[in-house]
Amino acid sequence: MDDFKAFVKTIPAIREEVVKGRYTWQQLYEFYVLYGEDDKMWEPYKHNRTDLTGLLDILKNVDLDALSKSFEGLQKILDLVGTFVVKEQPKSQNRQWYDD
Protein backbone atom coordinates (compact mmCIF):
# COMPACT_ATOMS: atom_id res chain seq x y z
CA MET A 1 0.00 0.00 0.00
CA ASP A 2 2.87 2.40 0.79
CA ASP A 3 4.37 1.77 -2.65
CA PHE A 4 1.07 2.76 -4.26
CA LYS A 5 0.86 5.93 -2.17
CA ALA A 6 4.41 6.87 -3.14
CA PHE A 7 3.61 6.15 -6.80
CA VAL A 8 0.50 8.34 -6.71
CA LYS A 9 2.49 11.19 -5.18
CA THR A 10 4.84 11.13 -8.18
CA ILE A 11 1.94 11.54 -10.61
CA PRO A 12 -0.57 14.09 -9.24
CA ALA A 13 -2.81 13.82 -12.33
CA ILE A 14 -4.07 10.47 -11.03
CA ARG A 15 -5.69 12.22 -8.09
CA GLU A 16 -7.58 14.44 -10.53
CA GLU A 17 -9.06 11.34 -12.20
CA VAL A 18 -10.46 10.22 -8.84
CA VAL A 19 -11.84 13.68 -8.12
CA LYS A 20 -13.52 13.75 -11.55
CA GLY A 21 -15.10 10.36 -10.81
CA ARG A 22 -13.40 8.51 -13.65
CA TYR A 23 -11.79 6.01 -11.25
CA THR A 24 -11.97 5.11 -7.59
CA TRP A 25 -8.92 4.70 -5.40
CA GLN A 26 -9.79 1.01 -5.11
CA GLN A 27 -9.80 0.57 -8.89
CA LEU A 28 -6.48 2.33 -9.28
CA TYR A 29 -4.91 0.35 -6.45
CA GLU A 30 -6.07 -2.96 -7.92
CA PHE A 31 -4.74 -1.98 -11.32
CA TYR A 32 -1.42 -1.01 -9.72
CA VAL A 33 -1.17 -4.34 -7.88
CA LEU A 34 -2.10 -6.42 -10.93
CA TYR A 35 -0.07 -4.65 -13.62
CA GLY A 36 2.52 -2.55 -11.81
CA GLU A 37 3.66 1.00 -12.33
CA ASP A 38 5.22 0.32 -15.73
CA ASP A 39 1.92 -0.52 -17.43
CA LYS A 40 0.69 1.50 -20.42
CA MET A 41 -2.31 2.67 -18.41
CA TRP A 42 -0.08 5.11 -16.52
CA GLU A 43 1.66 6.53 -19.61
CA PRO A 44 -0.69 9.50 -20.22
CA TYR A 45 -0.21 10.59 -16.63
CA LYS A 46 3.55 10.13 -16.76
CA HIS A 47 3.65 12.04 -20.07
CA ASN A 48 2.14 15.10 -18.38
CA ARG A 49 4.80 14.88 -15.72
CA THR A 50 7.48 14.66 -18.40
CA ASP A 51 6.11 17.79 -20.05
CA LEU A 52 6.52 19.68 -16.81
CA THR A 53 10.01 18.28 -16.38
CA GLY A 54 10.84 19.30 -19.95
CA LEU A 55 9.60 22.79 -19.25
CA LEU A 56 11.78 23.01 -16.17
CA ASP A 57 14.77 21.83 -18.20
CA ILE A 58 14.12 24.57 -20.74
CA LEU A 59 13.92 27.17 -17.99
CA LYS A 60 17.19 25.92 -16.51
CA ASN A 61 18.91 26.46 -19.87
CA VAL A 62 17.74 30.06 -20.29
CA ASP A 63 20.65 32.48 -20.36
CA LEU A 64 19.51 35.13 -17.92
CA ASP A 65 22.24 37.57 -18.99
CA ALA A 66 21.10 37.42 -22.62
CA LEU A 67 17.48 37.80 -21.52
CA SER A 68 18.40 40.82 -19.42
CA LYS A 69 20.26 42.41 -22.35
CA SER A 70 17.25 41.82 -24.58
CA PHE A 71 14.99 43.58 -22.09
CA GLU A 72 17.45 46.46 -21.83
CA GLY A 73 17.43 46.81 -25.63
CA LEU A 74 13.66 46.77 -25.65
CA GLN A 75 13.59 49.44 -22.96
CA LYS A 76 15.91 51.66 -25.03
CA ILE A 77 13.65 51.25 -28.07
CA LEU A 78 10.59 52.18 -26.03
CA ASP A 79 12.37 55.22 -24.62
CA LEU A 80 13.34 56.29 -28.14
CA VAL A 81 9.78 55.90 -29.40
CA GLY A 82 8.59 57.84 -26.37
CA THR A 83 10.67 60.84 -27.43
CA PHE A 84 8.77 61.03 -30.72
CA VAL A 85 5.38 60.94 -29.11
CA VAL A 86 4.09 64.42 -28.43
CA LYS A 87 2.82 64.73 -24.94
CA GLU A 88 -0.07 67.12 -24.76
CA GLN A 89 0.01 69.31 -21.71
CA PRO A 90 -3.30 69.95 -20.05
CA LYS A 91 -4.47 73.40 -20.90
CA SER A 92 -4.68 75.64 -17.93
CA GLN A 93 -7.96 77.34 -17.76
CA ASN A 94 -7.58 81.00 -17.07
CA ARG A 95 -10.92 82.16 -15.99
CA GLN A 96 -11.56 85.79 -16.23
CA TRP A 97 -13.66 87.19 -13.60
CA TYR A 98 -15.68 90.05 -14.82
CA ASP A 99 -15.78 91.58 -11.40
CA ASP A 100 -12.02 92.24 -11.38
What does this protein structure show overall?
- With 100 residues, the chain is mainly alpha-helical.
- It has a domain of 62 residues.
- Helices cover 67% and strands 0% of the residues.
Written as H for each helix and E for each strand, in order along the chain, the element string is HHHHH
Q: What can be said about the biggest beta sheet?
A: none
Which structural category fits the helices and strands? mainly alpha
Question: Taking all residues together, what is the mean pLDDT?
Answer: 81
Instruction: Provide the helix percentage.
Output: 55-70%
Rg over alpha carbons: 30 Å
What is the end-to-end distance? 94 Å
Low-confidence stretches: none
- Find the count of extended strands (DSSP E, 2+ residues): 0
Our count of helices gives 5
So what's the overall shape? Answer: elongated
- The fraction of residues assigned to DSSP E strands is under 5%
Show the helix and strand layout.
Layout lengths: L1 H9 L2 H8 L4 H11 L7 H18 L3 H21 L16
Tags for this model:
single chain, elongated, 100 residues
What is the gist of this entry?
This protein is an all-alpha fold and 100 residues long.
